[in-house]
Amino acid sequence: MPAPTDGFGYPDGALFYRRLDRRFPMAVAASGCWITDAAGRRYLDAAGGALVASVGHGREEIAREVAQAIASLGYVNGTQFSNPWAEQLAEQLAAVLPGDLRYCYFLASGSEAVEAAVKLARQVWVERARPGKWKVISRLPSYHGNTLTALSLSGREHYRRIYGPLLTDFPRVAAPDSYRDPDGPRSTGELLAAEIERQDPETVAAVLLEPIGGSSSGAVVPARAYFERVAEACRRHDVLLIADEVLCGLGRTGRWLAAQHFDLVPDVAVLGKGLNGGALPLSALAVRAGLVETLARGSGAFVHAQTYSHTPAICAAGLATLRILKREGLVERAAALEGRFFAALDRLRASRLVGDVRGKGLLAAVELVADRQTRAPFPRSARMAERLTALAFERGLIVWPNVGHVDGNEGDIVMLGPPLTVGEAEIDEIATRLGAALAALERG
Ligand code: PLP
Q1: CATH number assigned to the domain with residue range 29-55+337-443, chosen from the 4 options 3.90.180.10, 3.40.470.10, 3.90.1150.10, 3.40.50.300
Q2: 246, 280, 282, 413, best to mutate for ligand 1 pocket (most atoms within 8 Å of CB)
Q3: 84-96 vs 312-327: helix axis angle to the nearest 10?
Q4: In Å, how far from its chain's centre is CA 266?
Q5: Which pTM was predicted?
Q6: Which of 136, 147, 153, 391 is the most exposed, having the fewest neighbouring CB atoms within 10 Å of its CB?
Q7: Which atom of ligand 1 is nearest to the CA of 281?
Q8: What are 275-324's pLDDT values in tens digits?
Q9: Which atom of ligand 1 is least distant from the CA of 110?
Q10: E strand or H helix at 286, and its extent?
Protein backbone atom coordinates (compact mmCIF):
# COMPACT_ATOMS: atom_id res chain seq x y z
CA MET A 1 0.00 0.00 0.00
CA PRO A 2 1.40 3.44 -0.87
CA ALA A 3 2.02 5.86 1.99
CA PRO A 4 1.34 9.28 0.50
CA THR A 5 1.75 12.37 2.62
CA ASP A 6 -1.28 14.11 1.11
CA GLY A 7 -3.74 11.30 1.78
CA PHE A 8 -5.17 8.48 -0.28
CA GLY A 9 -7.08 8.86 -3.51
CA TYR A 10 -7.53 8.01 -7.15
CA PRO A 11 -5.55 6.87 -9.09
CA ASP A 12 -3.23 5.42 -6.42
CA GLY A 13 -3.79 1.90 -5.16
CA ALA A 14 -6.65 -0.30 -6.29
CA LEU A 15 -9.49 1.00 -4.15
CA PHE A 16 -12.45 2.45 -6.06
CA TYR A 17 -12.87 5.48 -3.78
CA ARG A 18 -16.23 6.95 -2.82
CA ARG A 19 -15.01 10.16 -4.43
CA LEU A 20 -12.48 10.29 -7.24
CA ASP A 21 -11.87 14.04 -7.01
CA ARG A 22 -10.42 14.29 -3.50
CA ARG A 23 -7.91 12.62 -1.19
CA PHE A 24 -8.72 10.88 2.06
CA PRO A 25 -6.75 10.71 5.30
CA MET A 26 -6.22 7.16 6.53
CA ALA A 27 -8.26 6.49 9.68
CA VAL A 28 -6.32 4.23 12.02
CA ALA A 29 -8.07 4.41 15.39
CA ALA A 30 -11.26 5.66 16.99
CA SER A 31 -12.72 5.88 20.44
CA GLY A 32 -15.91 7.52 21.69
CA CYS A 33 -16.52 10.62 19.56
CA TRP A 34 -12.97 10.82 18.20
CA ILE A 35 -11.27 9.42 15.10
CA THR A 36 -7.48 9.52 14.66
CA ASP A 37 -5.71 9.43 11.30
CA ALA A 38 -2.32 8.03 10.34
CA ALA A 39 -0.71 11.45 10.76
CA GLY A 40 -1.98 11.62 14.34
CA ARG A 41 -4.70 14.21 13.63
CA ARG A 42 -7.85 13.86 15.70
CA TYR A 43 -11.36 14.51 14.37
CA LEU A 44 -14.42 15.14 16.51
CA ASP A 45 -17.11 12.99 14.94
CA ALA A 46 -20.28 15.06 15.22
CA ALA A 47 -22.10 12.85 12.73
CA GLY A 48 -21.30 9.33 13.95
CA GLY A 49 -19.89 8.76 10.44
CA ALA A 50 -23.24 8.73 8.65
CA LEU A 51 -25.42 8.88 11.79
CA VAL A 52 -24.32 5.32 12.56
CA ALA A 53 -21.95 5.15 15.54
CA SER A 54 -24.60 5.80 18.20
CA VAL A 55 -22.79 3.96 20.99
CA GLY A 56 -19.46 5.60 20.10
CA HIS A 57 -16.45 4.27 18.27
CA GLY A 58 -14.13 1.48 19.37
CA ARG A 59 -16.50 -0.62 21.49
CA GLU A 60 -14.65 -3.79 22.47
CA GLU A 61 -17.82 -5.35 23.84
CA ILE A 62 -19.28 -5.47 20.33
CA ALA A 63 -16.07 -6.97 18.95
CA ARG A 64 -16.11 -9.70 21.62
CA GLU A 65 -19.75 -10.64 20.97
CA VAL A 66 -19.18 -10.78 17.20
CA ALA A 67 -15.97 -12.80 17.62
CA GLN A 68 -17.76 -15.28 19.83
CA ALA A 69 -20.55 -15.74 17.29
CA ILE A 70 -18.03 -16.35 14.51
CA ALA A 71 -15.75 -18.61 16.55
CA SER A 72 -18.49 -20.75 18.02
CA LEU A 73 -20.92 -20.89 15.11
CA GLY A 74 -20.02 -18.86 12.02
CA TYR A 75 -22.69 -18.87 9.33
CA VAL A 76 -25.94 -20.78 9.48
CA ASN A 77 -28.81 -20.11 7.13
CA GLY A 78 -32.14 -18.87 8.47
CA THR A 79 -34.07 -21.42 6.38
CA GLN A 80 -32.28 -24.28 8.16
CA PHE A 81 -31.53 -23.11 11.72
CA SER A 82 -32.34 -20.50 14.27
CA ASN A 83 -29.43 -19.14 16.31
CA PRO A 84 -29.05 -17.66 19.79
CA TRP A 85 -28.01 -14.17 18.65
CA ALA A 86 -30.96 -13.68 16.29
CA GLU A 87 -33.40 -15.03 18.91
CA GLN A 88 -32.10 -12.83 21.71
CA LEU A 89 -31.80 -9.73 19.58
CA ALA A 90 -35.38 -10.13 18.35
CA GLU A 91 -36.72 -10.68 21.85
CA GLN A 92 -34.85 -7.76 23.38
CA LEU A 93 -35.62 -5.41 20.53
CA ALA A 94 -39.33 -6.22 20.56
CA ALA A 95 -39.33 -5.59 24.31
CA VAL A 96 -38.23 -1.95 23.93
CA LEU A 97 -40.42 -1.12 20.92
CA PRO A 98 -43.95 0.26 21.36
CA GLY A 99 -47.27 -1.51 20.75
CA ASP A 100 -47.36 -4.90 19.13
CA LEU A 101 -44.23 -4.50 17.00
CA ARG A 102 -43.63 -8.04 18.11
CA TYR A 103 -41.63 -9.76 15.37
CA CYS A 104 -38.19 -8.79 14.03
CA TYR A 105 -36.68 -9.81 10.72
CA PHE A 106 -32.97 -9.10 10.29
CA LEU A 107 -31.17 -7.95 7.15
CA ALA A 108 -27.98 -6.04 6.43
CA SER A 109 -28.43 -2.51 5.03
CA GLY A 110 -31.16 0.07 5.46
CA SER A 111 -31.93 0.07 1.74
CA GLU A 112 -32.64 -3.62 1.61
CA ALA A 113 -34.76 -3.42 4.76
CA VAL A 114 -36.87 -0.66 3.18
CA GLU A 115 -37.34 -2.83 0.10
CA ALA A 116 -38.24 -5.80 2.28
CA ALA A 117 -40.83 -3.70 4.15
CA VAL A 118 -42.43 -2.68 0.87
CA LYS A 119 -42.51 -6.29 -0.34
CA LEU A 120 -43.99 -7.39 2.97
CA ALA A 121 -46.78 -4.83 2.68
CA ARG A 122 -47.55 -6.08 -0.82
CA GLN A 123 -47.54 -9.73 0.26
CA VAL A 124 -49.83 -9.04 3.19
CA TRP A 125 -52.45 -7.49 0.90
CA VAL A 126 -52.18 -10.34 -1.60
CA GLU A 127 -52.70 -12.83 1.21
CA ARG A 128 -55.64 -10.81 2.54
CA ALA A 129 -57.22 -11.18 -0.91
CA ARG A 130 -56.71 -7.50 -1.84
CA PRO A 131 -54.31 -7.99 -4.80
CA GLY A 132 -55.04 -4.53 -6.23
CA LYS A 133 -53.07 -2.92 -3.43
CA TRP A 134 -49.47 -2.37 -4.53
CA LYS A 135 -48.66 1.35 -4.57
CA VAL A 136 -46.51 2.89 -1.86
CA ILE A 137 -46.87 6.61 -1.25
CA SER A 138 -43.69 8.34 -0.10
CA ARG A 139 -42.63 11.96 0.25
CA LEU A 140 -40.48 14.74 -1.18
CA PRO A 141 -37.87 15.27 0.10
CA SER A 142 -37.06 11.93 1.71
CA TYR A 143 -34.37 9.30 1.67
CA HIS A 144 -34.99 5.58 1.90
CA GLY A 145 -31.87 4.12 0.33
CA ASN A 146 -29.94 3.64 -2.85
CA THR A 147 -31.04 0.28 -4.25
CA LEU A 148 -33.48 0.75 -7.08
CA THR A 149 -36.84 0.42 -5.32
CA ALA A 150 -35.61 2.30 -2.25
CA LEU A 151 -34.32 5.01 -4.57
CA SER A 152 -37.63 5.03 -6.48
CA LEU A 153 -39.36 5.76 -3.19
CA SER A 154 -36.86 8.44 -2.20
CA GLY A 155 -37.25 12.13 -2.79
CA ARG A 156 -33.63 12.99 -3.39
CA GLU A 157 -33.47 14.09 -6.96
CA HIS A 158 -29.73 14.41 -7.46
CA TYR A 159 -29.30 10.72 -6.56
CA ARG A 160 -32.04 9.72 -9.00
CA ARG A 161 -31.45 11.94 -12.02
CA ILE A 162 -29.36 9.67 -14.24
CA TYR A 163 -31.15 6.48 -13.17
CA GLY A 164 -34.62 7.60 -14.28
CA PRO A 165 -35.24 4.73 -16.72
CA LEU A 166 -34.44 2.15 -14.01
CA LEU A 167 -36.80 3.56 -11.38
CA THR A 168 -40.42 2.67 -10.56
CA ASP A 169 -42.90 5.54 -10.64
CA PHE A 170 -44.42 5.64 -7.13
CA PRO A 171 -46.62 8.54 -5.98
CA ARG A 172 -44.69 11.05 -3.85
CA VAL A 173 -46.13 14.06 -2.03
CA ALA A 174 -44.44 17.01 -0.34
CA ALA A 175 -43.13 16.22 3.15
CA PRO A 176 -43.82 18.48 6.13
CA ASP A 177 -41.69 21.61 6.22
CA SER A 178 -41.46 23.27 9.62
CA TYR A 179 -39.28 26.10 8.31
CA ARG A 180 -40.88 27.29 5.07
CA ASP A 181 -44.46 26.03 5.25
CA PRO A 182 -45.39 24.98 8.80
CA ASP A 183 -49.16 25.42 8.35
CA GLY A 184 -49.68 24.35 4.74
CA PRO A 185 -51.37 21.07 3.68
CA ARG A 186 -47.99 19.36 3.35
CA SER A 187 -47.35 20.00 7.06
CA THR A 188 -50.86 19.26 8.37
CA GLY A 189 -51.01 15.82 6.72
CA GLU A 190 -53.87 16.92 4.47
CA LEU A 191 -51.81 16.43 1.32
CA LEU A 192 -50.80 12.88 2.14
CA ALA A 193 -54.31 11.94 3.24
CA ALA A 194 -55.74 13.40 0.02
CA GLU A 195 -53.18 11.51 -2.07
CA ILE A 196 -54.39 8.18 -0.71
CA GLU A 197 -57.87 9.02 -1.98
CA ARG A 198 -56.60 10.47 -5.26
CA GLN A 199 -54.69 7.28 -6.01
CA ASP A 200 -57.77 5.11 -5.22
CA PRO A 201 -57.20 3.48 -1.83
CA GLU A 202 -57.84 0.03 -3.28
CA THR A 203 -54.51 0.40 -5.14
CA VAL A 204 -52.51 1.71 -2.18
CA ALA A 205 -50.61 -0.82 -0.06
CA ALA A 206 -48.63 1.47 2.23
CA VAL A 207 -47.36 4.89 3.13
CA LEU A 208 -43.60 5.11 3.74
CA LEU A 209 -42.23 7.98 5.81
CA GLU A 210 -39.46 9.05 8.17
CA PRO A 211 -41.30 10.13 11.35
CA ILE A 212 -38.59 12.70 12.05
CA GLY A 213 -36.72 13.81 8.97
CA GLY A 214 -33.30 12.41 8.31
CA SER A 215 -30.67 14.07 6.19
CA SER A 216 -33.08 14.55 3.29
CA SER A 217 -35.39 17.11 4.89
CA GLY A 218 -32.90 18.03 7.59
CA ALA A 219 -34.32 16.80 10.91
CA VAL A 220 -37.80 18.24 10.37
CA VAL A 221 -40.03 17.44 13.34
CA PRO A 222 -43.66 17.41 12.14
CA ALA A 223 -46.56 18.53 14.32
CA ARG A 224 -48.41 15.82 16.23
CA ALA A 225 -51.54 16.71 14.18
CA TYR A 226 -49.69 15.58 11.04
CA PHE A 227 -49.49 12.02 12.28
CA GLU A 228 -53.03 12.04 13.65
CA ARG A 229 -54.29 12.97 10.18
CA VAL A 230 -52.07 10.51 8.32
CA ALA A 231 -52.70 7.61 10.70
CA GLU A 232 -56.45 8.21 10.52
CA ALA A 233 -56.37 8.19 6.70
CA CYS A 234 -54.29 4.98 6.68
CA ARG A 235 -56.71 3.27 9.09
CA ARG A 236 -59.77 4.37 7.15
CA HIS A 237 -58.42 3.15 3.83
CA ASP A 238 -56.61 -0.02 4.97
CA VAL A 239 -53.20 1.38 4.11
CA LEU A 240 -50.19 0.13 6.06
CA LEU A 241 -47.88 2.68 7.64
CA ILE A 242 -44.18 1.93 7.28
CA ALA A 243 -41.92 4.09 9.45
CA ASP A 244 -38.41 4.38 8.10
CA GLU A 245 -36.51 4.74 11.36
CA VAL A 246 -33.14 3.80 9.86
CA LEU A 247 -31.69 7.18 10.78
CA CYS A 248 -34.04 8.60 13.43
CA GLY A 249 -34.68 5.36 15.35
CA LEU A 250 -32.91 3.53 18.18
CA GLY A 251 -32.56 6.50 20.50
CA ARG A 252 -31.21 9.13 18.15
CA THR A 253 -34.12 11.50 18.93
CA GLY A 254 -34.47 10.51 22.59
CA ARG A 255 -37.02 7.69 22.17
CA TRP A 256 -36.51 4.14 20.93
CA LEU A 257 -38.59 5.09 17.90
CA ALA A 258 -39.03 8.65 16.68
CA ALA A 259 -42.68 7.66 16.06
CA GLN A 260 -43.15 7.49 19.85
CA HIS A 261 -42.90 11.28 20.09
CA PHE A 262 -46.27 11.30 18.32
CA ASP A 263 -47.79 8.20 20.00
CA LEU A 264 -47.65 6.56 16.60
CA VAL A 265 -47.28 2.80 16.30
CA PRO A 266 -46.44 1.98 12.67
CA ASP A 267 -47.31 -1.35 11.07
CA VAL A 268 -43.67 -1.84 10.22
CA ALA A 269 -40.67 0.01 11.65
CA VAL A 270 -37.49 -0.18 9.58
CA LEU A 271 -34.31 0.03 11.67
CA GLY A 272 -30.66 0.25 10.63
CA LYS A 273 -27.70 2.50 11.40
CA GLY A 274 -27.99 2.85 15.21
CA LEU A 275 -28.73 -0.86 15.60
CA ASN A 276 -25.34 -2.16 14.51
CA GLY A 277 -22.93 -0.04 16.53
CA GLY A 278 -21.16 0.72 13.28
CA ALA A 279 -19.55 -2.71 13.50
CA LEU A 280 -21.28 -4.75 10.82
CA PRO A 281 -24.15 -4.01 8.44
CA LEU A 282 -27.36 -4.86 10.29
CA SER A 283 -30.90 -3.68 9.69
CA ALA A 284 -34.28 -4.91 10.86
CA LEU A 285 -37.97 -4.87 10.21
CA ALA A 286 -40.05 -4.74 13.37
CA VAL A 287 -43.49 -5.93 12.35
CA ARG A 288 -46.89 -5.81 14.03
CA ALA A 289 -48.19 -9.20 15.08
CA GLY A 290 -51.24 -9.06 12.80
CA LEU A 291 -49.16 -8.85 9.64
CA VAL A 292 -47.06 -11.87 10.54
CA GLU A 293 -50.22 -13.75 11.51
CA THR A 294 -51.63 -13.13 8.00
CA LEU A 295 -48.57 -14.84 6.50
CA ALA A 296 -48.59 -17.61 9.09
CA ARG A 297 -52.22 -18.44 8.31
CA GLY A 298 -51.65 -18.07 4.57
CA SER A 299 -48.57 -19.01 2.58
CA GLY A 300 -46.44 -19.72 5.65
CA ALA A 301 -43.46 -17.54 4.78
CA PHE A 302 -42.35 -14.07 3.77
CA VAL A 303 -41.28 -14.39 0.13
CA HIS A 304 -37.93 -12.68 0.58
CA ALA A 305 -34.73 -14.72 0.59
CA GLN A 306 -31.41 -13.07 1.40
CA THR A 307 -28.25 -14.97 2.30
CA TYR A 308 -27.36 -12.86 5.32
CA SER A 309 -30.73 -12.43 6.98
CA HIS A 310 -30.63 -13.57 10.63
CA THR A 311 -26.84 -14.26 10.40
CA PRO A 312 -25.32 -14.94 13.86
CA ALA A 313 -22.36 -12.53 13.73
CA ILE A 314 -24.30 -9.50 12.51
CA CYS A 315 -27.09 -10.15 15.00
CA ALA A 316 -24.37 -10.41 17.67
CA ALA A 317 -23.26 -6.87 16.78
CA GLY A 318 -26.86 -5.75 17.28
CA LEU A 319 -27.25 -7.63 20.54
CA ALA A 320 -24.14 -6.04 22.05
CA THR A 321 -25.17 -2.60 20.75
CA LEU A 322 -28.64 -2.93 22.27
CA ARG A 323 -27.13 -4.07 25.56
CA ILE A 324 -24.91 -0.97 25.64
CA LEU A 325 -27.80 1.35 24.71
CA LYS A 326 -29.86 -0.07 27.58
CA ARG A 327 -27.13 -0.45 30.21
CA GLU A 328 -25.78 3.06 29.68
CA GLY A 329 -29.24 4.61 29.35
CA LEU A 330 -28.23 6.21 26.05
CA VAL A 331 -31.77 6.72 24.76
CA GLU A 332 -32.68 8.67 27.89
CA ARG A 333 -29.33 10.44 27.64
CA ALA A 334 -30.17 11.67 24.12
CA ALA A 335 -33.40 13.14 25.49
CA ALA A 336 -31.66 14.66 28.51
CA LEU A 337 -28.94 16.30 26.40
CA GLU A 338 -31.35 17.81 23.87
CA GLY A 339 -31.56 21.16 25.69
CA ARG A 340 -27.80 21.46 26.04
CA PHE A 341 -27.20 20.38 22.43
CA PHE A 342 -29.62 22.90 20.93
CA ALA A 343 -28.53 25.70 23.27
CA ALA A 344 -24.99 25.25 21.93
CA LEU A 345 -26.13 25.01 18.31
CA ASP A 346 -28.46 28.00 18.60
CA ARG A 347 -25.35 30.15 19.04
CA LEU A 348 -24.64 29.43 15.36
CA ARG A 349 -27.63 31.60 14.44
CA ALA A 350 -25.26 34.52 14.95
CA SER A 351 -23.91 33.70 11.49
CA ARG A 352 -25.82 35.47 8.71
CA LEU A 353 -25.63 32.23 6.70
CA VAL A 354 -27.72 30.22 9.16
CA GLY A 355 -31.45 30.22 8.46
CA ASP A 356 -32.58 27.48 10.81
CA VAL A 357 -31.35 25.10 13.47
CA ARG A 358 -33.78 22.26 14.18
CA GLY A 359 -34.10 18.69 15.33
CA LYS A 360 -34.81 16.47 18.30
CA GLY A 361 -32.70 14.67 20.86
CA LEU A 362 -29.20 14.39 19.45
CA LEU A 363 -30.26 14.81 15.83
CA ALA A 364 -29.88 18.29 14.38
CA ALA A 365 -29.74 20.13 11.08
CA VAL A 366 -28.21 23.52 10.43
CA GLU A 367 -29.75 25.04 7.31
CA LEU A 368 -27.87 27.66 5.28
CA VAL A 369 -29.80 30.33 3.39
CA ALA A 370 -28.89 33.20 1.10
CA ASP A 371 -31.54 35.47 2.64
CA ARG A 372 -32.81 34.99 6.18
CA GLN A 373 -35.85 37.21 5.53
CA THR A 374 -37.18 35.32 2.52
CA ARG A 375 -35.53 32.00 3.44
CA ALA A 376 -34.25 31.77 -0.11
CA PRO A 377 -31.63 29.06 -0.57
CA PHE A 378 -28.24 29.61 -2.13
CA PRO A 379 -27.83 28.73 -5.81
CA ARG A 380 -26.61 25.16 -6.14
CA SER A 381 -23.49 26.39 -7.88
CA ALA A 382 -22.34 27.97 -4.58
CA ARG A 383 -22.00 24.45 -3.05
CA MET A 384 -22.44 25.87 0.44
CA ALA A 385 -23.10 22.60 2.31
CA GLU A 386 -20.12 20.91 0.70
CA ARG A 387 -17.85 23.87 1.40
CA LEU A 388 -18.96 24.12 5.02
CA THR A 389 -18.37 20.38 5.47
CA ALA A 390 -14.86 20.69 4.03
CA LEU A 391 -14.07 23.73 6.21
CA ALA A 392 -15.29 21.84 9.28
CA PHE A 393 -13.17 18.81 8.32
CA GLU A 394 -10.11 21.06 8.05
CA ARG A 395 -10.88 22.11 11.64
CA GLY A 396 -11.11 18.50 12.79
CA LEU A 397 -14.91 18.32 12.86
CA ILE A 398 -17.02 15.76 10.99
CA VAL A 399 -20.52 16.83 9.90
CA TRP A 400 -22.85 15.28 7.34
CA PRO A 401 -23.93 17.48 4.39
CA ASN A 402 -27.06 17.26 2.32
CA VAL A 403 -28.29 19.34 -0.57
CA GLY A 404 -31.41 19.84 -2.66
CA HIS A 405 -34.14 19.58 -0.02
CA VAL A 406 -35.85 22.85 -1.00
CA ASP A 407 -36.81 22.01 -4.58
CA GLY A 408 -34.87 18.91 -5.56
CA ASN A 409 -31.89 21.04 -6.58
CA GLU A 410 -31.23 23.86 -4.12
CA GLY A 411 -31.00 23.73 -0.35
CA ASP A 412 -27.96 23.36 1.92
CA ILE A 413 -27.92 21.49 5.21
CA VAL A 414 -25.34 20.04 7.50
CA MET A 415 -26.53 17.32 9.83
CA LEU A 416 -25.23 16.62 13.28
CA GLY A 417 -25.73 13.34 15.09
CA PRO A 418 -22.86 12.62 17.46
CA PRO A 419 -22.57 9.35 19.36
CA LEU A 420 -25.19 9.30 22.13
CA THR A 421 -22.26 9.05 24.56
CA VAL A 422 -21.16 12.59 23.66
CA GLY A 423 -20.08 14.72 26.64
CA GLU A 424 -21.18 18.26 27.39
CA ALA A 425 -17.70 19.65 26.72
CA GLU A 426 -17.70 17.82 23.37
CA ILE A 427 -21.07 19.38 22.50
CA ASP A 428 -19.58 22.82 23.13
CA GLU A 429 -16.54 21.90 21.05
CA ILE A 430 -18.79 20.82 18.15
CA ALA A 431 -20.53 24.22 18.23
CA THR A 432 -17.23 26.07 18.52
CA ARG A 433 -15.61 24.28 15.58
CA LEU A 434 -18.72 24.57 13.42
CA GLY A 435 -18.93 28.26 14.30
CA ALA A 436 -15.32 28.70 13.15
CA ALA A 437 -16.07 26.88 9.90
CA LEU A 438 -19.13 29.09 9.33
CA ALA A 439 -17.04 32.21 9.93
CA ALA A 440 -14.52 30.97 7.35
CA LEU A 441 -17.35 30.30 4.89
CA GLU A 442 -18.71 33.82 5.45
CA ARG A 443 -15.30 35.22 4.68
CA GLY A 444 -15.44 33.26 1.41
N1 PLP B 1 -33.49 5.15 5.23
C2 PLP B 1 -32.97 6.26 5.78
C3 PLP B 1 -33.88 7.19 6.52
C4 PLP B 1 -31.60 6.54 5.68
O5 PLP B 1 -31.10 7.67 6.21
C6 PLP B 1 -30.79 5.63 4.97
C7 PLP B 1 -29.34 5.89 4.81
O8 PLP B 1 -28.86 6.97 5.01
C9 PLP B 1 -31.37 4.48 4.41
C10 PLP B 1 -32.72 4.27 4.56
C11 PLP B 1 -30.53 3.50 3.64
O12 PLP B 1 -29.70 2.79 4.48
P13 PLP B 1 -28.35 2.12 3.92
O14 PLP B 1 -27.45 3.22 3.49
O15 PLP B 1 -27.83 1.32 5.09
O16 PLP B 1 -28.74 1.24 2.80
Answers
A1: 3.90.1150.10
A2: 246
A3: 40
A4: 16
A5: 0.98
A6: 147
A7: 15
A8: 998 889 999 999 999 999 999 999 999 999 999 999 999 999 999 999 99
A9: 12
A10: strand 283-288
